[in-house]
């Protein structure tokens, strides 16, 4: 039986990391982050901190990726550390909430940006989102080499767009001349809760750096290239996000940033006639590229679950011509389309998705400590830099974020927990059947 083929290079994996992170978030969520903080230097520090936390995670995952260079990535790490139930629950919520929720949010955002040119109805926006997900899924079924080309092309456009945004801010910006000043009036009024809530948008924007791990089974020299790609990619995204926020602060006053629903377009439109349309096109391309990656990467988790006998066995089928897990990809696309048709607002989706994503990222970070004790003899071609301090800080910070959302217990967090626990009887059903 034909299996998956190793065709993904270090460059391709790195561009997948960058493209997975840079979707709609950095072009939308800075206004939400600013509304919680309201002080330029704090805004920059929170975005920098988000990058540092993600880097801590990337450094921790580098060891895990080198230990288990298999399709499914995080699913495999959780299964090895905690047992098959926890691994299954990660795949379960990735399918029902995390990845498909992200696809729904990105599709909604894509249609919203197209509304800049033509006023679509809500139903028309949903139809656009459905067509987009189905079309990109069909393209990605055609082979991982096609997916690598898409990811590299669109990620390159995203990098160029943010660099151009910074150049516009530096040359034409008239606001925020004191954005790097630490002595800002009223800064002492900022408490820990607003900072943690600001991290919802930040973590959403950084989410996706671990998608390269899902593709370990199709990577060339995965023990080395997967760890390197997530570290290099995360560093690049952090730098680009700080650049973007500097541009926003230079181009818009604080109240303008907070009030903006399309901050990148509004910022450039301040100084360039027609700049809003240009930026809208670039952002739409960026979102398109991220949807292309998400329709390709996460189905490798469901594929791995099916091979382990804890999910529908049909999802383990590989296309005889294109060597892709095509049933798993189609399965995900159908559920994502249902979410697009029956979901709510963008901000509700990202709270919902980010909460469940960080819960499992925290558990995966903790898995490094468990596997050091539980699997001391497994080869580790790459070891986590700064162990145990850096992995411990990653677990600690992500745990604080999760606890804060649980204490506030928004409806989105509650729904996520309900769906999570519904996965337990489903797991035992499949296990018994197997």
Structure notes:
The protein has 434 residues and is an all-alpha fold. It has one domain (10-433): Amino acid/polyamine transporter I (Up-down Bundle). 75% of the residues lie in helices and 0% in strands. It is built from 19 helices and no strands. Helix 1 packs parallel to helix 11. The longest helix is centred in the N-terminal third of the chain and has 31 residues, at 84-114. It is globular. The protein starts with 9 loop residues before the first helix and ends with a helix. 56% of the residues are buried. The mean pLDDT is 88.
Keywords summarizing the entry:
434 residues, 0% strand, mainly alpha, Amino acid/polyamine transporter I, 19 helices
Topology:
Elements: H1 10-21, H2 25-28, H3 30-37, H4 40-67, H5 74-82, H6 84-114, H7 122-141, H8 144-172, H9 192-206, H10 211-214, H11 222-251, H12 254-259, H13 263-269, H14 275-297, H15 299-307, H16 326-342, H17 346-374, H18 389-408, H19 411-433
Number of domains: 1
Low-confidence stretches: none
Any idea what the CATH architecture is?
Up-down Bundle
Q: Helix and strand string, N-terminal first?
A: HHHHHHHHHHHHHHHHHHH
Brief rundown of the structure:
The protein has 19 helices and no strands. The chain is mainly alpha-helical and 434 residues long.
């Amino acid at each position: 039986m034909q299996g998956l083929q190793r065709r993904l290079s270090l460059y391709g994996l790195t561009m997948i990391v960058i493209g997975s992170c840079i979707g709609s978030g950095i072009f939308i969520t800075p206004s939400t982050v600013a509304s919680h903080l309201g002080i330029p230097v704090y805004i920059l520090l929170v975005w920098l901190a988000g990058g540092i936390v993600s880097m801590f995670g990337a450094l921790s995952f580098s060891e895990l990726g080198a230990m288990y260079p298999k399709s499914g990535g995080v699913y495999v790490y959780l299964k090895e550390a905690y047992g098959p139930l926890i691994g299954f629950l990660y795949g379960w919520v990735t399918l029902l909430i995390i990845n498909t929720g992200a696809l729904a949010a990105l599709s909604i955002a894509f249609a919203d940006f197209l509304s800049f040119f033509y006023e679509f109805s809500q139903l028309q926006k949903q139809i656009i989102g459905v067509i987009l997900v189905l079309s990109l899924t069909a393209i990605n079924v055609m082979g991982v080499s096609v997916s690598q080309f898409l990811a590299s092309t669109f990620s390159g456009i995203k990098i160029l767009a943010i660099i151009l945004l910074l150049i516009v801010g530096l040359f034409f910006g008239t606001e925020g001349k004191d954005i790097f000043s630490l002595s800002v009036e009223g800064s002492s009024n900022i408490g820990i809760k607003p900072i943690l809530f600001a991290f919802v948008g930040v973590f959403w924007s950084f989410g996706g750096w671990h998608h390269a791990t899902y593709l370990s089974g199709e990577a060339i020299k995965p023990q080395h290239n997967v760890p390197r790609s997530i570290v290099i990619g995360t560093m690049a995204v952090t730098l680009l996000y700080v650049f973007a926020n500097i541009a926003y602060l230079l181009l818009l006053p604080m109240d303008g940033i907070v009030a903006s629903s399309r901050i990148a377009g509004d910022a450039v439109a301040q100084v360039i006639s027609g700049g809003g349309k240009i930026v809208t096109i670039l952002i739409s391309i960026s979102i398109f590229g991220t949807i292309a990656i998400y329709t390709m990467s996460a189905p490798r988790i469901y594929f791995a679950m099916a091979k382990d006998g804890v999910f529908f066995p049909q999802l383990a089928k590989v296309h005889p011509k294109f060597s892709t897990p095509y049933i798993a990809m189609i399965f995900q696309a159908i559920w994502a389309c249902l979410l697009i048709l029956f979901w709510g607002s963008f901000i509700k989706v990202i709270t919902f998705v980010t909460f469940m994503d960080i819960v499992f990222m925290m558990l995966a970070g903790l898995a490094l400590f468990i596997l050091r004790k539980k699997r001391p003899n497994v080869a580790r071609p790459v070891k986590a830099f700064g162990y145990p301090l850096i992995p411990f800080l990653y677990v600690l910070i992500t745990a604080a974020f999760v606890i804060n959302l649980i204490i506030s217990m928004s409806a989105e967090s509650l729904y996520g927990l309900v769906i999570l626990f519904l996965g337990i009887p489903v797991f035992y059903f499949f296990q018994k059947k197997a």
